[in-house]
Amino acid sequence: MANDSISDPELEAEMEYAEKHGDLRSENVFDEDKGVFNGVSSEHMNRIKHKAKRRLNETLMSAGARSEHPVGSTIPLAAAGGDSLKSAAIKVPAALKNDRKSRTKYGRGLPKKGGAGGKGVWGTINVLDSAVDEEPDDKNDPNFESDPEDGVIIGSVSPPLSDEEFRNVVSPILKEYLEHGQTQEVGVLLSSLNISEHKSKVTTMAISLSMERHNPQRQLISVLLSDLFGSRILGRCHIEPGFDDLLESLPDLVLDTPEAPELLGQFMARAVADDCLAPRYLQTCSDRISADTTADACDGLKRKAIHRATSLLGMKHGYALLDNIWGVGGGQKACKALQTRIIMLLKEFLSSNDKAEAERCVAELEVPHFHHEVVYQIIYMVLVEGVRECCLKMADLLLYLEGSVITRDQVNKGFDRIYKDLADLNIDVPKAYEITESFTDICFERGVITTSVANAMPQRGRKRFVSEGDGGLVKH
After folding, report:
1. pTM to 2 decimals?
2. In this predicted model, what pLDDT tens digit does every residue of 38-56 receive, in sequence order?
3. Percent of the chain scored above 90 by pLDDT?
4. 28, 155, 191, 263: which has the fewest Cβ within 10 Å?
5. DSSP state string for 355-410
6. How far apart are CA 136 and CA 143, in angstroms?
7. Residue 158: CB partners within 8 Å, gap ≥ 6?
């Protein structure tokens, strides 16, 4: 058969090389029985066979046909139905013609160039063309931008508050703080406002507002100033001007609060103890007042406030005592301390019969949730005294307090406590049931308690005689 149409380029090159060097000439004839060319050296023929088998094995491996022809097995040059060397030429399957996978024995079968090579390929994944990201340099280009956006930060900006807006916004925040006492919430609200020009007025507004209240509210304001200073919302550069404004406005504050100089002095001393004010601030204010040649009534009020602050700071253990300069709030007092104060004010009422003073003392306790203890101590004092005059006085006092500071719910709770302890009280006071019943009837007649509370009065167990065998003993 003719051998001029061999399809394998490498095999043809070998044939040309052999013919050029004399190893294979045109007169050489292929012996089909032996599978060799007559007149060709065995060494060169083995070289051609080995290369043909290697190429065929690599092609079969890539086509998934390795199971049929394992690597290393003997593969004849002539195909099953072939008659010449042409039929043994290596042919790549049609499915692998356009395959981009590497066919070398050294690779892992991955795509060439990472899948980014070849015609019609867009490039690897997540890799953008650098030319697309570059800004156009042509001014006539519609995408050209003259001002680059590097270094530009976009954010929300709130305009500064005016004086009227500051009062309308901050005043409700401070009033609400006096109800809940959460300094962190006030700090968050103030931080969200643009009050950089009005921070000194926070101190002025807070202290002015507390002067119209009681000591527990003044304690809250002192704690607020300390916490705002600690969280760096307010600094000394804001607190000191605030106290300067308060010193200048003392003549106006005295009209509403006569003790304003003493209160301001206590606020100043507490601020120094909390490290919100420098100790030299008081001396600076005193020197400034002394240097002022135009003395007026305001200077006298200023000296009074500064003298009060200096005296508090100069006393023994002054810095430690200033933590409780406003007293201890009602909700923070111990129950024993509250009971002692309640007993003292009731004894004072029995001697003076001053209902207004007793009302003021009860209100100063600042414990509306503990007013049932006042009712309990009133009834207990009636049991201990055991005199009708005391019973009538206490009934009048309870009626007076029930209409002003003590709620009906607290009154009912106080009576319920007495009813539960009456069996134990009867051991110390034998006539406890009779006295309590008499006092309950008087309070019911005067409208202090309701019918349900009066009917809840426990009755002492009736006396009965046991059998004669017990010797006539009496059981209660």
Report:
1. 0.50
2. 555 677 777 777 777 777 7
3. 38
4. 155
5. HHHHHHHHHHT--GGGTHHHHHHHHHHHHHH--HHHHHHHHHHHHHHHTTTS-HHH
6. 7
7. 193, 194
Which secondary structure element, helix H or strand E, spans residue 266, and what is its range? Answer: helix 260-273
pLDDT tens by residue, 76-105: 444 444 444 444 445 556 555 566 665 666
Placement of tokens 């029930």 in the chain = 402
Give every CB contact of residue 444 below 8 A, 6+ residues apart in sequence: 451, 453, 454
Cα 345 from Cα 174, distance rounded (Å): 33
160 with 201: CB under 8 angstroms?
A: no
Cβ atoms 391, 439 nearer than 8 A? yes
- Which tens digit of pLDDT belongs to each residue from 393-449? 999 999 999 878 999 999 999 999 999 999 899 888 888 999 999 999 999 999 999
User: Amino acid identity of 415?
Assistant: F
Return the closest-CA partner of residue 18 out of 35, 50, 42, 1.
Answer: 42
31 bridge partner residues: 36
Q: Find where tokens 């049991």 sit.
A: 383
Q: Compute the distance between CA of residue 111 and CA of residue 123 in angstroms, rounded to an integer.
A: 13
**Alpha helices, H only, 274-334:** 280-291, 297-314, 318-321
Least confident residue range of 42-46, 132-136, 141-145, 157-161:
132-136
Contacts 24+ apart (CB under 8 A), 384-391: 384/429, 386/429, 386/431, 386/435, 390/350, 391/435, 391/438, 391/439, 391/442
Long-range contacts of 93-101, Cβ-Cβ distance < 8 Å, separation of 24 or more: 93/59, 93/63, 95/63, 96/59, 96/62, 96/63, 99/62, 101/62
Distance (Å, whole) CA 162 – CA 195: 9
CA 127 to centroid of chain Cα atoms: 41
Return phi, psi of residue 31, to 5°.
-90, 110
Q: Alpha-carbon torsion 56, 61, 65, 67, what sign?
A: positive
Angle at 94 between CA 52 and CA 111, to 5 degrees: 85
Q: Which residues does residue 464 pair with via DSSP β-bridges, in sequence order?
A: 475
- 234 phi, psi to nearest 5 deg: -120, 145
Separation CA 261–CA 277 (nearest Å): 18
Query: What's residue 4's pLDDT?
Result: 43
**Pick the residue with more confidence: 444 or 32?**
444
